[in-house]
Amino acid sequence: MPIGHAVNPNICMVTGFSVHHDGEEARRRGVEGFKFFGYALGHHYIFGETQAGRTNIWNRFEAAKDAMPPGAGAARHRHPR
After folding, report:
1. 18-30: per-residue pLDDT in tens?
2. Closest residue by Cα to residue 29 from 41, 43, 19, 15
3. What Rg value do the Cα atoms of the chain yield, rounded?
4. Which of 6, 36, 37, 47 has its CA 20 to 30 A from that of 28?
5. Which has the closest alpha carbon to 74: 2, 8, 19, 16?
């Protein structure tokens, strides 16, 4: 869905957010989501092999996430509580 008055198919922007009544849970889920996003991008464009309709990237992420660097997916800015 376009945000402004014009659409430029040469530009793409992605953002994410996490909402939960418990702020700590929102952060936990958000960090995991950003880690998965980064993993999935890497899987598709750098290190993964995908078989259409058969590869479960989430399961592969679940198996690899504990070995990912601690800062992977961490929010850069924190909002005041």
Report:
1. 899 999 999 999 9
2. 19
3. 16
4. 47
5. 16
> What is the rounded distance in angstroms from the CA atom of residue 16 to the CA atom of residue 30?
8
Task: Give residue 77's pLDDT.
Answer: 45
Q: How many CA within 13 A on the CB side of residue 65?
A: 16
For 61-72, how does the pLDDT look when each residue is reduced to its tens digit (9 = 90+)? 999 998 888 766
Closest CA to 29 of 43, 45, 18: 18
Amino acid, single-letter form, for residue 10: N
Alpha-carbon dihedral sign for residues 65, 67, 73, 74: positive
